[in-house]
Specification:
13 helices, mainly alpha
C-alpha cells in the first residue's frame, strides 16, 4: 500500500495543501510568494466577476443537476425492461460520454453557429423568428452551453440508475401492484426508497461535476460574452494562467472545494438521519 499512498500524497494531497497556502499569498509564478493573509478572500466580496460567476454556478448546479438527474432517471426507467433494440438505445444515449468535454463543446459550437443545425431546426418547426447567435447573446449563452452539458451527462446518470434499478426487489413492486397501487405510487413508495444508495452517488457526482465544469464552457464561449457564462472554474483559470494571479486563482480553487464539500457533507448527514429514522 505504500506505493499508491506515496503517489496519492505527491499528486493529490500536496498540491491541495500547496493551493491552500498559495491562496494566502500574492504570486505571479516568478520569485517567492508574498504573504497577504486573507486579502484574496476579502477581495472576492467586491469583485463583480466573482459574483457573476457564483450566480452562474448556482444556476448551473440547479439546471445541470436537475435536468441531468430527471433525464437520466426517466431514461433508466423507460429502458429498464427488456424489449427490442433496448441495448442499442442504451448505447446511443451513453455514446456522448465516450467523447471528452472539449470535443463535445466544439461539436455543439458548430451546431449553434448562425444558419447551423439548431437554427435550421428552429426554422423547420416554424420558429425561425427566434433564431439567433446563441453563444454570442448574453441572454442565451449560458443556457445553450447548459443544454450541451446535460446532453452529455444524462447518459452517464442513466447507467447509474439502471444499475440501481437492477438491484431493486421486483417482488415488492408486484406486491404493491396486487394491493392496487398505481404505477406512480409503486415508483415513488417502492422503487425510489431502494435507490437511496444510488441517489447518494448521483448527488455527489452531480455536485462535483457542476462545480468543476470547465472544458465545455471554455471551448464553447471562454466564459463570455461579457462574463455571461463565467463559472468559478473558468474564472479561476483566467486569474491563474491568463493574468498570472496565482494567489487569487488558488483562493477561487479553495472556494470551489469548500462549496463542493459543504453540499456533499450536508446531503450525507441528511441521508444518514433518514436512514436512522
Amino acid at each position: 500500500m505504500a506505493v499508491p499512498v506515496v503517489v496519492e500524497a505527491v499528486w493529490v494531497f500536496w498540491p491541495a495543501v500547496n493551493s491552500l497556502w498559495l491562496s494566502l499569498t500574492k504570486w505571479n509564478g516568478a520569485g517567492p510568494p508574498q504573504f497577504v493573509g486573507f486579502r484574496n478572500y476579502t477581495s472576492m466580496a467586491s469583485d463583480p466577476v466573482f459574483r457573476q460567476a457564483l450566480v452562474n454556478n448556482v444556476i448551473w448546479l440547479v439546471g445541470f443537476g436537475g435536468l441531468s438527474v430527471i433525464g437520466g432517471l426517466a431514461l433508466a426507467v423507460a429502458l429498464n425492461r427488456p424489449r427490442r433494440l433496448v441495448g442499442l438505445y442504451r448505447s446511443a444515449i451513453y455514446l456522448p460520454m465516450v467523447f471528452s468535454l472539449a470535443v463535445t463543446g466544439l461539436f455543439w459550437r458548430v451546431l449553434y453557429q448562425p444558419d447551423g443545425v439548431v437554427d435550421s431546426v428552429v426554422g423547420g418547426v416554424g420558429l425561425g423568428a427566434f433564431a439567433k447567435q446563441w453563444l454570442a447573446d448574453p441572454d442565451t449563452a449560458l443556457w445553450a452551453v447548459l443544454v450541451a452539458a446535460v446532453w452529455r451527462q444524462v447518459g452517464y446518470l442513466m447507467v447509474l440508475y439502471l444499475a440501481g434499478l437492477k438491484g431493486c426487489d421486483p417482488t415488492l413492486d408486484d406486491a404493491a401492484a396486487i394491493d392496487g397501487a398505481s404505477a406512480w405510487q409503486r415508483f415513488r413508495y417502492v422503487t425510489m426508497p431502494q435507490l437511496r444508495g444510488v441517489n447518494t452517488v448521483v448527488f455527489a457526482v452531480t455536485v462535483i461535476d457542476s462545480l468543476r465544469t470547465f472544458d465545455i464552457v471554455w471551448t464553447m464561449t471562454g466564459g463570455g460574452p461579457y462574463h455571461s457564462t463565467e463559472l468559478l472554474s473558468t474564472y479561476m483559470f483566467e486569474q491563474g494562467f491568463t493574468f498570472l494571479n496565482l494567489g487569487y486563482g488558488s483562493a477561487l480553487a479553495v472556494v470551489i472545494f469548500l462549496l463542493a464539500l459543504g453540499f456533499i457533507i450536508t446531503y450525507l448527514v441528511r441521508a444518514a438521519r433518514q436512514e436512522v429514522i
